[in-house]
Specification:
The complex is a heterodimer of chains A (414) and B (58).
Chain A lengths: L2 H14 L3 E8 H4 L7 E4 L11 H13 L6 H9 L4 E4 L18 E7 L4 E6 L15 H25 L2 E2 H10 L9 H18 L3 H12 L6 H12 L11 E7 L2 E6 L7 E4 L4 E4 L12 E2 L3 H4 L14 H4 L3 H11 L3 E10 L5 E7 L1 H7 L5 E6 L7 E7 L3 H16 L1
Parallel strand pairs in A: 2-3
Antiparallel strand pairs in A: 1-4, 1-6, 4-5, 7-8, 7-11, 8-9, 10-15, 12-13, 14-15
Chain B lengths: L1 H6 L5 E4 L3 H9 L3 E4 L10 H12 L1
Parallel strand pairs in B: 1-2
The chains are: A alpha+beta (414), B alpha+beta (58).
Chain lengths: 414, 58
């Protein structure tokens, strides 16, 4: 076995051995290492305010209003551009965020731990679809919901988790994939399993009957609630495999709405970026391609960890949300075996005779085959303040992979 | 050589790699052709092929 094969076997074994569990809920400012009131975390590779896309700017403005650091949209924009706010990728702080991925200090966050390697990952709680902060919407409706999530949803779920104990997310994702989810853009089964698991503890531990009722109604109305658990589950599964010398395993893929970026295990924390592509998808009534922002969000961590688009065969119904046909969903998963190092030991797909999902993207195979990883995603409006306008499929730019391959070869020869 | 000639004396089953036009020409003559899904590595770009070869040897 060559040196790269050995390093890849080690890296993918670490990934496959991961056991993500949900430990609890905390506040971003208390839990996320290095988080401060003046810092805002965002999706994707690093980006400055002047290069941020519309929906990310909208989410930053909304977060500053939510934090009471600005009284109006205009004040928030001024503060955002003043240099007083530090912007950092979620990925640099053991966190991930869907779409704009904006995290500010007061926001409640899920606390996950990879039980095998004891590393943690964090993610905000999912707000639902449509006019929500992560898609760049920032009206009163959005801010009021965020405050309700901080004051009612998070404390109620935190008490329920204390009463229930840890939740095994590896097992829950495995079950969800067998029930028609792919864990990225279809999370109906995962959300239902979470509700079924926590409902008795929510009812028995809630501060009031109305709090329990409001929380259960919110969870039941939001099929994507589980996304903000499947993402950090993927993140804490991949992080221990993210720095294996000599490995060509892709350890992160992410986008900030301006750039698409990847990281490679053997190249550590370097980002390789290219302009974020347009998403090919289906639009909500009244919207079309001209309204769409380029690809955005950390949620492609799901595909990096071996589910999401890579497990689309297990979620044929998703084609009604993202476009395509059932055959396309099956073939997309089959094609991903061409660019991956292993089949997942726990995430299996009944329709493919319980074959494990294609897991662990090999940089070399992507460049050699010119097959880009398949990614399911949502589509944000390109202007700040509007929100989600559709969902679809996106092909990561090959430039990221080709530049990373050049850097990898250069590092080995030096 | 004899074996080659013998080949043309009986029904052919052909696997075609690369340009589909070669396979199409045989199909038009009633030959059974399977088109293999094959593309040159790295889109045929020599610089990337060389890098991949180097890493293969490593």
């Amino acid at each position: 076995m060559g040196a790269i094969e050995e390093a890849n076997a080690k890296a993918v074994d670490i990934l496959l051995a991961a056991k993500p569990v949900l430990r609890g809920i905390g506040v971003a400012g208390d839990e996320i290492p290095g988080m401060t009131k003046q810092k805002i975390l965002h999706a994707g590779p690093p980006v400055t305010w002047d290069r941020m896309c519309g929906p990310m700017r909208g989410a930053v403005i909304g977060a500053l209003i939510y934090e009471a650091m600005a009284g109006s949209r205009e004040e928030a924009e001024e503060l955002a551009a003043s240099g007083q706010i530090t912007y950092e990728p979620c990925h640099h702080s053991q966190a991930v965020g869907p779409m704009a991925g904006v995290v500010s200090a007061s926001m409640p966050v899920w606390i996950l731990e990879n039980e095998t390697y004891k590393n943690r990952a964090y993610c905000t709680l999912n707000e639902g679809l449509g006019k929500v902060l992560r898609y760049g919407a920032l009206g009163d409706e959005v801010i009021d919901r965020l405050r309700w999530m901080e004051r009612t949803l998070a404390p109620t779920l935190a008490r329920a988790l204390d009463a229930h104990g840890d939740v095994d997310l590896r097992s829950m994702i495995a079950q969800a994939l067998e029930m028609g989810d792919e864990g990225h853009n279809r999370n109906r089964a995962g959300t239902s399993l979470l509700i079924r698991t926590l409902a008795p503890s929510i009812v028995s531990s809630a501060e009031s009957r109305s709090a329990a009722s409001e929380v259960l109604a919110f969870l039941t109305s939001n099929d994507h609630f589980f996304l903000n658990l499947s993402m950090p589950a993927a993140k804490c599964s991949l992080d221990p495999a993210a720095d294996v010398p000599g490995s060509t395993l892709v350890s992160a893929m992410s986008r900030n709405g301006t750039d698409f970026g990847i990281r490679v295990s053997g190249l550590g924390s370097r980002w390789f970026t290219a302009p974020a592509p347009k998403v090919d998808g289906l639009y909500f009534p009244g919207f079309g391609g001209e309204d769409a922002n380029p690809d955005i969000g950390d949620s492609v961590i799901c595909e990096t960890a071996g589910f999401g688009g890579f497990a689309m065969a297990s979620a044929p119904a998703i084609v009604q949300f993202v476009g395509g046909t059932v055959d396309f969903a099956l073939n997309s998963t089959r094609e991903m075996y061409e660019i991956t190092l292993a089949e997942h030991a726990f995430y299996r797909m009944p329709i493919l005779d319980f074959r494990g999902t294609p897991t662990g993207i090999d940089l070399r195979r992507v460049v050699e085959t010119q097959i880009p990883p398949v990614v399911n995603t949502g589509i944000a409006h390109r202007e700040p303040g509007i929100g989600q306008v559709g969902a679809g499929l996106v092909k990561p730019p090959m430039k990221c992979f080709e530049d990373a391959l050049r850097a990898f070869a250069e590092e080995r020869s030096s | 050589m004899d074996k080659m000639l013998e080949l043309f004396g009986r029904d052919l089953s052909v696997i075609n790699l690369g340009l589909e036009g070669f396979g199409d020409a045989l199909t038009a003559q009633g030959v059974d052709v399977v088109q293999m899904d094959w593309r040159p590595p790295a889109g045929g770009r020599p610089e990337l092929i060389e890098l991949l070869d180097q890493l293969e040897e490593a």
